[in-house]
Amino acid sequence: MIKKVLCVDDDTISLTISQLLLKRTGFAQEVHTAIDGSEALEYFERLFAEEPDPVAAAPELILLDINMPVMNGWEFLQEYNPRFRDKLTNTHIVILSSTIDPEDFALAKQYPVVAQFISKPLSVENLEELKSHPVMQPFFPES
Predict the structure, then answer these.
(1) Which residues pair with 112 in a beta bridge?
(2) What's phi and psi for 110, nearest 5 deg?
C-alpha cells in the first residue's frame, strides 16, 4: 500500500472519485488534493518549509491532470522537475487525464518522472494495472 498520494485536478468530482477509490481499494492510506499545478507546488514548498523530514513526508505518488486553469500539468512538471525531482526520488507521477491528443502522450514520455499515463476516470482496473508497474511494485509486492 502507498502511504500518501497527491491528486492534482481542477475537477472536484474527479478528485472525489479518486480519493474514494484510492482509499476504498486499499491503494493508499492518505490522499491529499490540489486544484491546479500552482497549489501542488505550494504543497511541496510547505512540505520542505515545515516538515522535519520532507522526503519521508512526501507523497509516493502524484496523480496529475494536465488540462487545468491557472497552472496546467505540463507547467507543473516544468517547475517540479528542477526544484523537487532530485530531492524526491521516491515520488512518482502518473498523468490522469481525459486527453486523447497524441502530442500529450509523446510529451509525457519526455519526463522520466512520469511513470504512466492513465485515462480518466480513475478505475479499479487502472489501479490494478498501476500496481504492476515496476515503480509501484515495491509498494504492492503481492501484485
Answers:
(1) none
(2) -80, -10
Residue 101 CA, distance from chain mean position:
20
3-state secondary structure of 48: helix
d(CA 66, CA 69): 9
Domain 2-58+73-138, second-level architecture: 3-Layer(aba) Sandwich (3.40)
DSSP state, residue 92: E
Distance of alpha carbon 6 from the chain centroid:
5
Measure the CA–CA gap between 98 and 109, rounded to whole angstroms. 17
Write out pLDDT tens, residues 59-112: 999 999 999 999 999 999 999 999 999 999 999 999 998 888 888 888 888 899
Classified as helix, coil or strand, 7 is: strand
CB 113 within 8 A of CB 93: yes
Which residues, 6 or more positions from 70, have their beta carbon under 8 angstroms from its beta carbon?
36, 37, 38, 39
Alpha carbons 55 and 84: distance in angstroms, whole number: 10
- The domain limits of the chain are 2-58+73-138
